[in-house]
Amino acid sequence: MPLAGRLLVGRECAGVEPSRRLIIEHPAISRDHVELRSEPGRGAHLVDMSTNGTWLNGRRVERGEPIPLRDGDRIELGDHQLVFRLRHPDEAIVDEDRMTMFDVKVVPMAIVVADVVGYTTLTELHGGAEVAAVSDDLFDAVRRLLPGHGGTVVNYIGDAILAAWDMDRDLEAARHAVTFALAGSELAAERAASLPLRGPNDEPLRLGWAVTLGESASGRPSPTRQTVHGDAVNLAFRLSGLAARDGRAPVPVTEEAAAAAPGAAHYGEPLEPQVKGRTAPARVVSAGKG
After folding, report:
1. Which residue from 193, 173, 187 is spatially nearest to 140, judged by alpha carbons?
2. CA neighbours within 13 Å on the CB side: how many for 204?
3. 94-144 residue pLDDT tens
4. Are 97 and 203 in contact (CB under 8 A)?
5. Left, alpha or beta for 43 (phi > 0: left; psi -120 to 50: alpha)?
6. Distances from the Cα of 148 to the Cα of 72, 77, 144, 180, angstroms
7. How far apart are the first and last CA of the chain?
8. Where in the chain is the domain with CATH 2.60.200.20?
9. What are the angstrom distances between the C-alpha of 61 and each of 76, 147, 150?
């Protein structure tokens, strides 16, 4: 099917003229699942709008973000695969090739959460708009690191960013998550040092990080939001809320995640911090560059 301007792929694609839509009947496909765009001078892009997700060459893409397409790219949705083919610089087509895929709703994931330290105090000192602007700047810089580590932003939640790796699709998910957290921590510290925003003791803005592993289920509370649920997600948020505070290391990693990525970092001695809402303490190690 030729791609000229815009092509909407989904189960219904209501209100879109037939020449600009590709209907795929499958319960895992959203009514409006993914949009393919071709713009003069900008090439072709993909924008995911789905509930169950879209994968490009085996990696789940961030929802709502334009992702560049290249000749031969594989776009997976539901139990279908679309192969993007470039005829010449001004003309592109999408060929449909059906293939069976194992559709799972609960999958093992590597989770990374980064959380702004002292967010409430900072907003009290500087105002919400200034803190939000600086936080957005840091999170945008961190987000740009993710493609190089194979991860996907799942959501931004107030003063935190949540990223995930599907361990069924990425056998190096744990290593990628740990190396991303370390790179993100280093980048955020470098950028924060040059920003005018300071804490009550004149300290630069800091982020607390956490890396966990575990089964997670994805959800969609609204058409524009995605969430993942599970103990690994809850634990990552709790640990990131402890990290880089009261003398603690900025990047705690659960023992399970460290064991799955032994060469990704230099790990400290095991600790058992008390985590709010858990009956047993979590076993974690601090991660640093080896």
Report:
1. 187
2. 13
3. 554 443 233 334 678 999 999 988 877 777 777 878 777 777 788 888 888
4. no
5. left
6. 20, 22, 8, 9
7. 50
8. 2-98
9. 10, 9, 10
Spatial contact of 153 and 113, defined as CB atoms under 8 Å apart: no
Delimiting residues of CATH 3.30.70.1230 domain(s) in the chain:
106-288
Query: Which amino acid is present at 201?
Result: N
CA 206 – CA 245 distance, rounded (Å): 9
CA–CA gap between residue 260 and residue 262 (Å, rounded)? 6
Name residue 217's beta-bridge partners: 106, 229
Helix (H, G, I), strand (E, B) or coil at 5: coil
CATH 3.30.70.1230 correct for 106-288: yes
Q: Which amino acid is at 39?
A: E
Dihedral, CA atoms, 9, 10, 13, 16, nearest 10 degrees? 10
Secondary element (H or E) of residue 120: helix 119-126
What does the pLDDT read at residue 93?
47
Reduced to 3 states (helix: H, G, I; strand: E, B; else coil), residue 90 is coil
Q: What Cα–Cα distance (Å) separates residue 7 from each residue in 99, 150, 170, 266?
A: 21, 26, 29, 47
Question: In angstroms, what is the C-alpha Rg of the chain?
Answer: 21
- pTM passes above 0.85: no
**Domain 2-98 = CATH 3.30.450.40:** no
Determine which of 65-69, 131-135, 256-260, 267-271 has the lowest per-residue pLDDT on average: 131-135
Q: Taking the CB of residue 11, how many other CB atoms lie within 10 A of it?
A: 18
Give the tokens for residue 136. 């957005």
Token pair recorded at residue 92: 């592109």
* Dihedral Cα 89, 93, 94, 95, nearest 10 deg: -120
